[in-house]
Amino acid sequence: TNHVGFDKSRLQAGFLSLFFSGFDFRGVCFESGIAMQPCESFAARTALKALLSQTPVNSLPVPRGKIITVSSSETVIQGFQKLASNNILSAPVFDEHTKKFTGFLDVKDLVSFVVFLDMEKSVGLPTTVDEVVRMVGPAFFGIPIEGITVTYLSRRNPFKCVSQGDSLLKVCELLSQKGVQRVPVVDDHGAIVNIVSQSTVIDFLYRHAEIVKPNLVKTVAEVGLGSSPVITVNASTPALETFQLLDSKKISGIAVVDEAGRLLSAISGSDLKIFMQQDFSLAALRAPTMEFLSQLRAKAAGPMEGTPSISVEPKDTVAIVIAKLAATKVHRLFVADDTQGYKPDRIIAITDVIRYILKD
Questions:
Q1: Distance CA 255, CA 145 (A)
Q2: Max Cα separation, the chain?
Q3: For FRET with 196, which of 30, 74, 260, 286 sits at 20 to 30 Å CA-CA?
Q4: Which pLDDT score, from 0 to 100, does residue 35 have?
Q5: Are the beta carbons of 69 and 90 closer than 8 angstroms?
Q6: Spatial distance between the Cα atoms of 191 and 46, rounded to a whole number of angstroms
Q7: How far, rounded to the nearest angstrom, does the alpha carbon of residue 160 sit from its chain's CA centroid?
Q8: Axis-axis angle for helices 350-358, 168-175 (nearest 10)
Q9: d(Cα 290, Cα 305) in Å, to the nearest integer?
Q10: Angle at Cα 126 formed by Cα 125 and Cα 132, nearest 5°?
Q11: Which of 101-105, 191-195, 276-280 has the lowest mean pLDDT?
């Protein structure tokens, strides 16, 4: 764009002079053809991407014990029970016929089954995972119960893997894609030797705080981290309706608010996994969401089971967001402060943080 008094030839000569003198143009912003000051956010992300690209995935911590997988020979019921008994949210599914992994069986698939229940029935409600699958599976998927296999369900959750020599940057690029929450690491024979989750990346960044903190000093408000509006449910909403909303919106967590819209808690598919582990009747899903969560978490083993509401303020830095995600082990934070009556204004998922770091 030509401006009044804009000498294009002199500007080009100036750039050539800077170029041949070895000037580093990375991190310089340009607006309307005029060079501006170095971009703090761009330079920060460049430093973090360099760290990720220089880190091979085989240098990451490997889980103790063997990787939990589900065989195509196992039933859906056995698959869900394996998730519950090992206290995990998902597991890769191995097809015994093709000798390949087809995807992940995820607790979110169980949510899909449960929300299809006719909770208006006063009798005949299923009381076990087995009964849930057999009662609602054919109606929900439109196919006979025999066709609802772990292989069938796993294709809803893509299996995108990396090799041991690949970088953590490549893993992050996959995790930034829609629907990808875990990336398997395979050896030369195709066997899974590790699974890198979004939380693994957050823990890695937190452990390298000496690099992360100085490079992520922009605030949540400044970079517009996260998304809005925040999907919420009232504390009095029946728990089943809340899970139905989770499923219909294809999201992993919802904020629970009071009558004034103030943040009280959060609910996710993880809570349904805990619910299935406990000795609860599915009729409990008729209870108000907040009451359901209170009963669930009172019975759960461990203080961090479930999805508590963890929030940050707009003035908090991206580094603080990473620190809170790492310390609390949650997958999302809500942005809220006293000036807005503590009403959730934005939601920040781990995916948002990864995408921000990868942003050009």
A1: 34
A2: 84
A3: 74
A4: 38
A5: no
A6: 33
A7: 15
A8: 120
A9: 15
A10: 130
A11: 276-280
Q: What are the strands of the beta sheet with 311-312, ordered from one edge?
A: 311-312, 332-335, 346-349
Query: DSSP code of 306?
Result: S
pTM of the predicted model as reported, rounded to 2 decimal places? 0.79
Cis peptide before 229 (omega within 30 of 0): yes
Summarize pLDDT for 327-345 with one digit per residue, the tens.
998 899 999 987 777 899 9
Take residue 256 and report the two structure tokens written for it.
């629970």
Number of Cβ within a 10 Å radius of residue 174: 17
State how far the Cα of 146 lies from the Cα of 150, in Å rounded to an integer. 11
Q: Show the tokens assigned to 309.
A: 């509401």
3-state SS class at 39: coil
pLDDT in tens, 234-245: 999 999 889 889
Distance CA 345, CA 111 (A): 26
Amino acid at the residue 310: I
Name residues whose C-beta falls within 8 Å of residue 233's C-beta, 6 or more positions apart in sequence.
241, 242, 245, 254, 255, 256, 257, 267, 289
Q: What angle do CA 236, 251, 305 make, to 5 degrees?
A: 65
Handedness of CA 259, 261, 263, 266 (dihedral sign): positive
Sequence letter at residue 233: V
Single-letter amino acid, residue 234: N
Inter-axis angle of helices 76-85 and 107-115, nearest 10 = 120
φ and ψ at residue 293, rounded to 5 degrees = -65, -40
> What are phi and psi for residue 140, nearest 5 degrees?
-70, -45
Q: How far apart are CA 104 and CA 237, in angstroms?
A: 31
Q: Could you give the CA distance from residue 290 to residue 311 in angstroms, rounded to a whole number?
A: 18
Is residue 138 within 8 Å of 145, Cβ to Cβ? yes
Q: Which residues contact 56 (CB under 8 A, 6 or more apart)?
A: 164, 165, 166, 167, 168
Q: CB-based contacts of 342: which residues, under 8 Å, 6+ apart?
A: 262, 263, 311, 336
What's the CA gap between 33 and 8, in Å, rounded?
10
